[in-house]
Write a structure and sequence with these properties.
Blueprint: H1 2-22, E1 27-32, H2 42-49, H3 52-55, E2 58-62, H4 71-77, E3 82-86, H5 87-95, E4 100-105, E5 112-117, E6 132-135, H6 142-151, E7 156-159, H7 165-168, E8 174-178, H8 182-188, E9 196-200, E10 211-216, H9 217-222, H10 224-243, H11 245-259, H12 265-279, H13 293-305, H14 315-318, H15 324-333
Parallel strand pairs: 1-2, 1-3, 6-7, 6-8
Antiparallel strand pairs: 3-10, 4-10, 5-8, 5-9
Length: 338
């Protein structure tokens, strides 16, 4: 009985310490997605709403992205601590001396497609010869330009902007589209999959996985722990999306409604499903968050061949070295599908 009494006293004395540990200040950081709120960024929304960032010891502000907030510029201005962005964009910046660093490669497969109506007679890449191809500008042009270079095709590039109307109205013979976004819009316009020729760039030897997580090299060097915490919690968020899709969709709609993006639930459901296909190809979680050197080299070589960059930055300087614990933390915390 005396031993039990001493144990009670010890626990009573330790109680304030436990409470204080729970109240320790969390590291404040901000994360800027590179576009408007949509299911493309569901994992980060879920990680915030479910308290995964808080569990990891972070106080995260999830910023609202969009064209008025260039993500990498926001890192330099100090407005954002971390951002998401395309691998090709980051390699271009790094090759110019910009100290951006990849802390996680979230998407493992490119979402960019070539889409054509079968009625146009286009069923293979070679059939693009002499045709009109609708494409967005900037980094969206890299894969189409690389494809035309590799196949030696003479194709007229027609600039596209915010809609698929040029393709739908027949002003171009083929167009680029993101699998999780514009392709679904094309289907919803009344075209059936059987009426379309769809050529994923990932199956044409040009797998340029897009979305990754980035910060400045100084941020990583000064606080590698915060980088690991952010990655671990974000990957946990994506795994939660995979295993609780309806709940994740509700969280996404909360953000899209607040931003008045004009989207709808059916489109966001499609986008979430396709994003999960791209993040976990064939359901495989082993490469989760990892930037593969072969993918990095593939993108770098094409950028150099197109004279977009003069040299490929060293892979070891481009990516952060995170612990296996950080990269696997999400898997350990995931309860599995429900």
């Amino acid at each position: 009985m005396a031993r039990f009494g001493r144990l009670v006293c010890i626990l009573w004395l330790l109680a304030p310490v436990v409470c204080l540990a729970g109240d320790l200040p969390r590291h404040k950081v901000s994360l800027l997605p590179h576009w408007l709120p949509q299911a493309q960024f569901a994992g980060y929304m879920v990680a915030l709403e479910k308290g995964f960032y808080k569990d990891a010891g972070l106080d995260v502000t999830l910023m609202r992205g969009g064209p008025e907030k260039p993500p990498f510029e926001s890192l330099h201005s100090g407005e954002a601590t971390f951002c998401t962005g395309w691998l090709s964009t980051a390699i271009k910046l790094r090759a110019k001396g910009d100290p951006v660093i990849n802390i996680a490669q979230v998407m493992q497969r490119s979402a960019l497609l070539l889409v054509a109506k079968k009625s146009s007679g286009i069923t293979t890449v070679a059939d693009l010869e002499g045709r009109k191809l609708g494409s967005w500008g900037d980094d969206f042009r890299i894969q189409p330009d690389a494809l035309l270079r590799i196949y030696g095709l003479n194709v007229s590039i027609v600039p596209m902007y915010s809609t698929c109307n040029l393709f739908l109205k027949g002003a171009v013979d083929a167009a680029t589209a993101m699998w999780y976004n514009e392709y679904h819009i094309i289907l919803n316009s009344g075209l059936n999959p059987e009426e379309l020729t769809v050529m994923p760039f990932s199956e044409l030897g040009l797998n340029f996985p897009e979305d990754g997580m980035y910060c400045l090299e100084e941020t990583y060097k000064n606080n590698p722990q915060a980088c690991e915490q952010l990655v671990a919690a974000s990957l946990r968020g994506w795994l939660y999306c995979r295993d609780h899709r309806d709940e994740a969709l509700e969280i996404v709609m909360k953000y899209t409604d607040a931003a008045h993006t004009g989207t709808n639930r059916a489109h966001q459901r499609w986008m979430l499903a396709r994003m999960l296909d791209l993040i976990f190809p064939d359901g495989d979680t082993r490469g989760m968050g990892r930037l593969k050197e072969q993918d990095y080299r593939r993108v770098g070589v094409e950028l150099r061949e197109l004279n977009v960059i003069q040299h490929i930055p060293p892979f070891e300087q481009f990516r952060a070295i995170l612990s296996e614990d950080a990269l696997n933390a999400g898997k350990a915390a995931s309860p599995g599908p429900k």
